[in-house]
Amino acid sequence: MDNHPRILVINPGSTSTKIAVYKNGDVVFLKTIRHSVEELSQFKRISDQYEFRKNIVYNELKNAEIRLDLIRIVVGRGGIVKPIASGVYRVNETMKRDLIEAKRGEHASNLGALIADDIAKQLPSAEAFIADPVVVDEFEPIARYSGHPLFERVSLFHALNQKAIARAHAKSLMRRYEDMDLIVVHLGGGISVGVHHQGRVVDVNQALDGDGPISPERSGTLPVGELLKMAFSGKYTYEEMKSMVVGKGGLYAYTGLNNAYEVEKAAQAGDKKCYDVMEAMAYQTAKEIGAFSTVLKGDVDAILITGGMANSKWFCNLIIERIHKIAPVYVYPGEDEMKALAENGALILSGEIEPKEYV
Ligand SMILES: Nc1ncnc2c1ncn2[C@@H]1O[C@H](COP(=O)(O)OP(=O)(O)O)[C@@H](O)[C@H]1O
Ligand SMILES: CCCC(=O)OP(=O)(O)O
Description:
Strand content: 15-25%
CATH architecture of the largest domain: 2-Layer Sandwich
Order of helices and strands: EEEHHEEHHEHEEEHHHHHEHEH
Bound molecules: adenosine-5'-diphosphate, the ligand CCCC(=O)OP(=O)(O)O
Strand order of the largest sheet: 3-2-1-4-6-5
Number of domains: 2
Number of strands: 11
Distance between the termini: 41 Å
CATH topology of the largest domain: Nucleotidyltransferase, domain 5
Radius of gyration: 20 Å
C-alpha cells in the first residue's frame, strides 16, 4: 500500500484555477481549469468566487479519486496580504481576515490561502501554508516614488514564479541567484517585468491595476488625465471603471477574448484586430524591459521570459526581436508556480524549514 504523504497545491490565477498533488517530489495529479470573463463576471468581488473555485477544487479531486487522507500539507498561492519578505507562511486567522477584507487589493490569489485552509481543516492531519505571495516586497526606496507623495508604488507581481525561474536559471549555469542581475518577464493573465538584482526584486511594474504593458485581461498603464475625466463623467460606476482596468481590460477589451491562445489563433487565421493587439502587447512588454534595464544601468546578465504566453514562440519572438541586444534571452514556457509551491511544502514536511508567522 502506498501511504506516502501527499502535498496538495492550489493556485487560483486571474484566468485559471490550477490544482496539483505531489508525492516524493513528483507530480501525481495536475489540472488547469480556464475561466472565461463571462463565467467570472457573475461575481462582484474576488471573495465572491470563493465557493465557486473551492467547489471546482473539491470536484476535481473527487473525480480524480485522490486519496485525501494522505495529504499532509496544503499549499495555496499567496495573495494580497501585507507586504512581506519572501518565504513560507502558515495560514492563520490574521492572514485570512486580511484576505477577506482585501483592503490592499483584490486578486484571485487571495483565494489560495482561504481554500487551502478550508481543505486542510477537513482532513485528519493536514496544515495549510502559502509561499512567496504576490506582495513579496524587496524594493529599493527609490522605486517607491510614484510622482505624488499621496501615492506609493508597491511591489505586486508574480513573485513566486519569477523567483523560482530566476533561481532555476542561475542553478542551470551553476551560479548563485544572489550573484546575478536578471530581468524576469512573466506573461500571465497579467504581465510583470521584474528587476532581480543579486537575489532581490528591487523594482517591478505593479502588474494588477498599477502600470505596465497591456495583458490578456488588464489595461496596464492608461493615460491618467483621460482616466480621471472618464471616472468623473458620471457615466460609469466605480465597478465599471475598475473592470476596465482589471478583468475586462487589455486583450479582452480589444477582442472580446481573455485567452491569449485564442486571440493568437484568430490572429494567425487573418483577424487583423487580434494580430494588431498581440503585436502591441509584445511592443509594450519590450518597452517595459528596455526601461527596466536602466535600473541595472544596462548590466543585465540575462532576460528570462516565462508564464503561460511564453508557450507561444510567435509571441515571444515579437518581444525578442526588440530586446535581444540588451542581454541574452532565455524562454521558460509555462510557469513553475505549482512545482515551487510543492517544493516549499516539501521543505515544511521534512522539517528543513520552519514556517514564518504572519502578523
Ligand atoms: N500554448 C500557448 N500559446 C499561446 N498562449 C498560451 C498557451 N498556453 C497558455 N497560453 C496563454 O497564457 C495566458 C496566461 O496563462 P496563465 O499563466 O496560465 O494564466 P493565469 O495568469 O490566469 O494563471 C492565457 O491567456 C493562455 O491562453
Ligand atoms: C497580482 C500579480 C499576479 C498576477 O497578476 O497573477 P495572474 O497573472 O495569475 O493573474
